[in-house]
């Protein structure tokens, strides 16, 4: 789950600072950085907002699998550490492309607030700590799923972004696994509600990624990424694929609801969320007057609004 971290919307908005030289992004630490700045830079490497969503989806899987589980503290911490490790590794790997993109040029590595070596060591330490904590305090399967997420996100999805438009689908798989990680941490990896949430997450991510990719397609093109919005000439394919995945998300909610794997609260919220995504994607397909940037922005905002509602509905239905 990587492309949804935006600071301003639309290519016509105020731009972040111009990219810094690649030598800074690759190797060197800015000597003027203070200790506090370097600590903040390390935290920023973990992409806290994105990591927070991973923790929330993981905790959702844990709670629906075993509401009485006495694992609330170690499991979220382990998930947070593993997520931070994967996201830090992503920033380490993409430090040179990040220096070429306006929206990412001020990230810690391109800005020289942390060295490449420190970032790599930090990401490895977080990854090992997260997997180790999960193995020691929950289950080996939870640790294995965390390791799989790190490998898929850091070693498969990240390099694929500059090679094929199908990288987004691989990234979506890693982003859909946290609910299963949480269920495994609770000792119930087979719980149908956790699988239902993972399936919905898998398809929810695609409109989210595609909307951000379309808004920042020039940045991605400058950095050499070959994502669908980059190779899509007019945005129609991006809108169609977004609409298709919104429909699949609806099926991923409706099928487990019909089978009794989830209840009516989650089912209703999930179907409404999928409908909202489908409506926003269709609006992006119809509206062409501003290069589809405004409808892509609205699609992005709808994705941000619907995911928390779905997780809250699922957990509330389980606990109450």
Automatic annotation (TrEMBL):
Q: Which InterPro entries match?
A: Protohaem_IX_farnesylTrfase, UbiA_prenyltransferase, UbiA_sf
* Keyword tags: Cell membrane, Heme biosynthesis, Membrane, Transferase, Transmembrane, Transmembrane helix
MF terms in GO:
protoheme IX farnesyltransferase activity
Instruction: State if Transmembrane helix is listed as a keyword.
Output: yes
Coiled-coil regions, chain positions:
none
Where does the chain cross the membrane?
48-65, 71-93, 114-135, 141-158, 170-188, 194-216, 237-259, 265-286, 298-316
Q: Which Gene3D superfamilies does the entry link to?
A: UbiA prenyltransferase
Main EC class the enzyme belongs to:
transferase
Q: Does the keyword Secreted apply?
A: no
Question: What's a Pfam family this protein contains?
Answer: UbiA
Q: How does it sit in the membrane?
A: Multi-pass membrane protein
What more the UniProt record tells us is: Carbon 2 of the heme B porphyrin ring is defined according to the Fischer nomenclature.
The name on file for this protein is: Protoheme IX farnesyltransferase
Q: Which organism is it from?
A: Actomonas aquatica
């Amino acid at each position: 789950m990587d492309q949804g971290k935006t600071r301003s919307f639309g290519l016509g908005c105020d731009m972040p600072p111009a990219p810094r030289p690649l030598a800074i992004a690759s190797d060197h630490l800015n000597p003027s950085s203070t200790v506090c700045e370097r600590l903040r830079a390390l935290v920023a490497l973990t992409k806290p907002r994105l990591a927070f969503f991973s923790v929330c989806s993981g905790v959702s899987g844990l709670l629906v699998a075993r509401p009485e589980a006495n694992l609330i503290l170690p499991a979220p911490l382990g998930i947070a550490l593993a997520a931070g490790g994967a996201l830090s590794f992503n920033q380490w790997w993409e430090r040179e492309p990040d220096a070429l993109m306006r929206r990412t040029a001020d990230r810690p590595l391109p800005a020289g607030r942390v060295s490449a070596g420190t970032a790599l060591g930090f990401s490895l330490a977080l990854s090992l700590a997260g997997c180790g904590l999960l193995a020691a305090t929950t289950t080996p399967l939870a640790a294995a799923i965390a390791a799989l997420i790190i490998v898929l996100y850091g070693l498969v999805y990240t390099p694929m972004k500059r090679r094929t438009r199908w990288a987004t689908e691989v990234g979506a798989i890693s982003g859909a696994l946290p609910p299963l990680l949480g269920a495994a941490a609770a000792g119930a990896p087979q719980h149908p509600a956790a699988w239902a949430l993972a399936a919905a997450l898998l398809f929810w991510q695609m409109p989210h990624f595609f909307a951000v990719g379309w808004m920042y397609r020039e940045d991605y093109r400058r950095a050499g990424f070959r994502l669908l919005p980059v190779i899509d000439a007019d945005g129609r394919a991006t809108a169609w694929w977004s609409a298709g995945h919104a429909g699949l998300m609806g099926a991923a909610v409706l099928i487990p609801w019909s089978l009794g794997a989830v209840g009516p609260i989650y089912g209703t919220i999930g179907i409404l969320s999928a409908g909202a995504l489908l409506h926003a994607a269709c609006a992006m397909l119809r509206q062409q007057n501003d290069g589809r940037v405004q409808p892509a922005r609205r699609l992005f905002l709808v994705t941000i609004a619907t995911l928390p509602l779905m997780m809250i509905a699922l957990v509330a239905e389980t606990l109450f």
